[in-house]
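Quick one, tokens below. Sequence please?
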């Protein structure tokens, strides 16, 4: 695995928090940041894979058909609002 170096400018409060969390985890700040970045990059890659798979299964134009029916088949009722008093009691 090749490694690269670069300067990272962090706000002082963020650096202090990261240093504290790294110390609590028993790792260096460098390892802590590398691990956090790896987790973020992995999550992004997983999201891209997920949404690409969803898009591959989609039927073009189907969403428009569904949206055109909105409010015509099942008209909203008085208790449907999320902030209605009836749902607050539950």
């Amino acid at each position: 695995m090749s490694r690269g170096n670069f300067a990272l400018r962090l706000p002082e409060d963020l650096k202090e928090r990261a240093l504290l969390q790294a110390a609590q985890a028993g790792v260096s700040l460098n390892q802590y940041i590398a691990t956090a970045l790896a987790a973020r990059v992995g999550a992004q890659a997983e999201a891209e894979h997920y949404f690409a798979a969803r898009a591959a299964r989609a039927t073009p134009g189907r969403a428009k058909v569904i949206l055109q029916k909105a409010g015509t088949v099942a008209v909203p009722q008085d208790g449907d609002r999320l902030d209605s008093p009836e749902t607050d009691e539950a």
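The helical segments are 12-25, 29-57, 62-69, 85-88. The CA atoms of residues 31 and 37 lie 10 Å apart.
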